[in-house]
């Protein structure tokens, strides 16, 4: 006979013997409470081993009978009540009878009241009281239960000494309750607390522990949620770190593997949107395709995974312009649509994405049929989305875009009116501090501009410029998006309201170091710089038109040489800072040296050792150093006398370049060429219009100069 069968038989005989003894015992006999206690414990042990509901029913029956015979001052009463609460909680989980969860809460509440603070059992009883309130919340939806769950679990945590074996499980349970409240109330503090407690649990969980994988998965998810809310690079970096670790712990064949691949891919995608580095997009696509390959036909998650893949392809199309990506986005999303049943909750997103893809194809190929299809799909998405659906603002923006472009094609004012209406609804649904607010405000600026061009009403021009200003100066959203909006603002103001364009150009140039970020690779920074070639010329031309020649000179130097200036800044001497604030100088120098070394190492082949960092770890370290460097600069610039510490040189400093003779800077704008002149000993910048000069002539002069410099062995810019 198998050991398990022997144990089962012994349990049965024990229960039979106890039942027989109870049946032979007269009512009121003093041994009855002991027999009942033995019976409920015997049924409890068998329930835990065999998981049969009948044993749970008998445990509750005998515990309840014992309770009726137990005096209020019995020292074992609190333990009995705790056990009875547990049994009712278990039965509720199986049968869903509300009476069970009510009794579970009542019994454990009394048990806690009877338990002294120094009793070791207090921790578990408080934790169970919190758990039962959370269970009742999940079934009845009363927020007060969720508040009580968090309160009692927090008390359990406060009662748990450091090093207690239950500490990790108490922390993770509290995190679960915080997650439920975050999902219900969308309060950022719950995210903050969840990350704090789960990070503590992670430190306490050793490698190889069965709970480690779930902690990493949850922590990655919380960081990802917080990134969506606050758009802090460190959050998506941490999400990728923990999700990557979780993936390494997930064996092949694990049912959770596809989901972990998808979440890691999504985090890389979000970082791509923030930093614009192609490696992240490639990783996102790779993980998504791996997840798709592991998804069997008929899997209910197949439509959402295909939808994500379509979204990744369209993002890469917008970045690289390869039509194959656009076609793949269409293909995968149409496949998702074919698999989605009526009532599928992801249908609004599928229709909205298809609208975006048709709109992108219209902009690329110009087929009006695509524009009509875009409007049709977006309209269906809007009609299907229930009130409060998180995708409604985005769908409204997309629909507005399509109508704006149809107005541009046909000139029908109705399309422009619909654009304004949809965008106004999107604005009303989007909080000012939401990352998407920038996109909505920027688009609304464009609509007001279209109204101004169509009607000549200056009110719309004023609204357009104000929305551009608000979006580009907002603290929400990524620096890349804010810089792009600032450039559009500057171009719009320069064309339609030249008197106001100086502020717009200043905003764009101030954002330039964040767009061409020190934390990006050198190649990425030069690639980003190529996207801003016209900024310096246009900004300088605007300053020249305003007769502010010193500002024009500053902007030319600052905007055209940002990468060079960043590299030079890392090597700048810190003598003045070191004499007054030596600790800050030492720290800044150490970080600068590491950043400079990282930039140099990126151009050299590297040998590998057993403890070499992965490419991802190296990149994250570089970005952390860049953030620390910028934070230190901010701290130093708040000190008295250091307002302009390592900032781009002002005109007064640039004037010192003319030591032995005049310096001439030529700005070649499409509308006009101008020369800015600096003379030794002169404290102003002179201006000479060059009506007969052109960009072509400037290029020819440059080639001649470069040839002359090469002949003299002078190739690079720098101090000699």
From TrEMBL:
Residues 597-618 have a biased composition (Polar residues). It comes from the Eukaryota. Residues 595-620 are annotated as: Disordered. This is CHAT domain protein. InterPro entries: TPR-like_helical_dom_sf (IPR011990). Gene3D superfamilies: Tetratricopeptide repeat domain (1.25.40.10).
């Amino acid at each position: 006979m198998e050991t398990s069968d022997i144990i089962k038989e012994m349990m049965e005989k024990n229960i039979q013997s106890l039942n027989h003894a109870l049946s032979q015992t007269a009512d009121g006999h003093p041994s009855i409470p002991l027999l009942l206690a033995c019976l409920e414990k015997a049924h409890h042990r068998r329930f835990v081993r065999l998981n049969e509901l009948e044993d749970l029913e008998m445990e509750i029956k005998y515990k309840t009978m014992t309770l009726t015979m137990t005096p209020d001052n019995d020292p074992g009463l609190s333990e009995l009540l705790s056990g009875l609460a547990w049994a009712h909680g278990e039965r509720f989980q199986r049968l869903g009878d509300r009476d069970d969860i009510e009794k579970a809460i009542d019994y454990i509440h009394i048990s806690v009241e009877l338990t002294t603070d120094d009793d070791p059992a207090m921790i578990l009883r408080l934790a169970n009281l919190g758990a039962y309130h959370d269970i009742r919340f999940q079934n009845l939806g009363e927020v007060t239960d969720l508040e009580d769950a968090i309160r009692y679990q927090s008390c359990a945590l406060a009662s748990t000494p450091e090093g207690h074996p239950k500490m990790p499980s108490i922390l993770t349970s509290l995190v679960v309750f915080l997650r439920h409240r975050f999902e219900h109330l969308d309060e950022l503090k719950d995210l903050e607390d969840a990350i704090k407690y789960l990070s503590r649990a992670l430190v306490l969980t050793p490698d190889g522990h069965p709970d480690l994988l779930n902690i990493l998965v949850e922590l990655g998810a919380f960081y990802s949620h917080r990134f969506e809310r606050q758009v802090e690079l460190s959050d998506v970096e941490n999400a990728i770190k923990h999700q990557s670790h979780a993936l390494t712990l997930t064996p092949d064949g694990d049912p959770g593997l596809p989901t972990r691949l998808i979440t890691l891919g999504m985090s890389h995608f979000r970082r791509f949107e923030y930093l614009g580095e192609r490696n992240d997009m490639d990783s996102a696509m790779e993980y998504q395709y791996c997840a798709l390959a592991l998804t069997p036909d008929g899997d209910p998650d197949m439509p959402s995974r295909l939808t994500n893949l379509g979204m990744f392809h369209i993002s890469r199309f917008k970045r690289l312009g390869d039509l194959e990506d656009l076609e793949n986005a269409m293909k995968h999303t149409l496949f998702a649509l074919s698999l989605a049943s009526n009532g599928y909750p992801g249908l609004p997103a599928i229709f909205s994405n298809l609208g975006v893809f048709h709109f992108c194809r219209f902009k690329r190929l110009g087929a009006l049929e695509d524009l009509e299809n875009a409007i049709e799909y977006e309209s269906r998405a809007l009609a299907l989305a229930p009130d409060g659906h998180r995708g409604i603002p985005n769908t409204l923006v997309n629909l507005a875009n399509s109508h704006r472009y149809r107005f541009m094609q046909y000139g029908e004012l109705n399309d422009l009116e619909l654009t304004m209406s949809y965008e106004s609804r999107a604005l009303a649904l989007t909080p000012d501090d939401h990352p998407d607010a920038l996109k909505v405000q920027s688009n609304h600026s464009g609509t007001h501009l279209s109204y101004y061009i169509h009607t000549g009403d200056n009110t719309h021009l004023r609204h357009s410029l104000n929305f551009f200003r608000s979006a580009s100066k907002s603290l929400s959203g990524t620096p890349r998006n804010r810089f792009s909006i600032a450039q559009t603002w500057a171009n719009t103001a320069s064309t339609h309201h030249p008197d106001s364009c100086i502020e717009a150009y200043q905003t764009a140039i101030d954002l330039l170091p964040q767009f061409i970020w020190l934390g990006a690779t050198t190649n990425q920074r030069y690639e980003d710089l190529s996207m801003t070639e016209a900024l310096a010329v246009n900004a300088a031309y605007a300053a020249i038109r305003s007769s502010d020649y010193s500002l024009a000179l500053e902007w030319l130097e600052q905007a055209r040489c940002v990468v060079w200036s960043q590299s030079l800044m890392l090597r700048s001497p810190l003598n003045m800072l070191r004499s007054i604030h030596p600790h800050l100088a030492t720290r800044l120098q150490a970080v600068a040296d590491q950043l400079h070394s990282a930039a140099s190492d990126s151009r050299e082949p590297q040998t590998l050792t057993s403890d070499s960092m992965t490419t991802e770890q190296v990149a994250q370290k570089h970005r952390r150093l860049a953030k620390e460097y910028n934070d230190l600069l901010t701290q130093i610039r708040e000190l008295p006398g250091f307002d302009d510490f390592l900032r781009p040189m002002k005109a007064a400093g640039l004037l010192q370049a003319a030591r032995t003779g005049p310096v001439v800077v030529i700005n070649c704008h499409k509308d006009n060429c101008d020369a800015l002149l600096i003379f030794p000993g002169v404290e102003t910048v002179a201006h000479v219009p060059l009506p007969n000069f052109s960009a072509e002539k400037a290029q020819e002069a440059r080639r001649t100069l470069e040839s002359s410099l090469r002949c003299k062995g002078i190739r690079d810019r720098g101090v000699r």
